[in-house]
Amino acid sequence: MKDLELQDTLGPEALDQLFLEARSQNGWRDTPVDDATLEQLYDLVKMGPTSANCSPARFVFIRTAEGKEKLAPALSKSNVDKTMTAPVTVLVCHDMEFYEKLPELFPHGDAKSWFTGSPALIEETAMRNGSLAGGYLIMAARALGLDCGPLSGFEADKVEEAFLAGTTWKVNFICNIGYGDPDKVWGRLPRLSFDDACVMV
Amino acid sequence: MKDLELQDTLGPEALDQLFLEARSQNGWRDTPVDDATLEQLYDLVKMGPTSANCSPARFVFIRTAEGKEKLAPALSKSNVDKTMTAPVTVLVCHDMEFYEKLPELFPHGDAKSWFTGSPALIEETAMRNGSLAGGYLIMAARALGLDCGPLSGFEADKVEEAFLAGTTWKVNFICNIGYGDPDKVWGRLPRLSFDDACVMV
């Protein structure tokens, strides 16, 4: 139970690790990532909020050479090396039948009925909330001291044929995970200013 | 420049604050959130990765009674009270013409040309990366000691008519921000187990 004191802001080192100094990685150190760490990662990610707790995100953790070889032909050229050498490559997916779990995940009401027969709402909800979980994944990995290399340059149909055949899962994006090689990080790109991206009302 | 030591995992209190003990809020304490905090929040969120640094997310921070009144008719009934009383209500938006900023944001190549004439790719990229930024917003707010109450129960066309007319921005979801009232938090809902949501390859 939370007490009535306000929570503090995290310290500057934590803000650096999560946001300000964290960088997308193009190369990796040899340090492996063990399966227990991936379970701990999921146990953080799953707690992030989704609408009506719909929890559409699903994750394929590729750690083996065989898995990487199956993935390689689906990647754009510039994403092959960094993915083949990453300790873990995560397919960030969502289940297009996520609503089948709503009686368990949201027992307050008949949330499943909001979706049945509404393919546009299903797709929008899966994409929004699956992507939110992708954001939680990146933040949770960084919170655990891991580095990320997210990427969208791949052919989704090939990834789905290789890894998701016979399921109702679709791939959203891919995120390499491990301990980054700082020598392979690119220069930081600019960001939009507050005034370019935000409005105060 | 990062040194070659591995980063530590954040401490248990930080993991609680970001993920494990953080809860979606239905009521708020009187403590206000000042504009400087919102600028600090954006300065964290903007650093989160997006594909080719495309940065499609835009944010409308509603802090005034007039702004709240304009928003109220667009909200589902159960979302009105908690939104009217929240210190700040954020419209998490994305700019459907985000690619116009790519010459500035991604000077490595002609990334703008990937999108021109491809409305499906524009929409998918805006939704994926705008939602990722929504995930960063929730995590950044929590990192700053704030609480969140994200919600999808609203009529997007009414929100856009009231706040985004004449722009190329679309609303994705809404997130109330402030210091939550722990007495108004609901019981924690279940989550999918690792084996239900994850596959190891």
From TrEMBL, chains A, B:
It comes from Sagittula marina. HAMAP family: Oxidoreductase_RutE_HadB. PANTHER family: MALONIC SEMIALDEHYDE REDUCTASE RUTE-RELATED. Belongs to the nitroreductase family. HadB/RutE subfamily. One of its GO terms (molecular function) is oxidoreductase activity. Its EC number is 1.-.-.-. Its cofactor is FMN. NCBIfam families: PRK05365.1. Residues 27-179 form the Nitroreductase domain. This is Putative NADH dehydrogenase/NAD(P)H nitroreductase GGQ68_003481. Keywords: Flavoprotein, FMN, NAD, NADP, Oxidoreductase. It holds the Pfam family Nitroreductase.
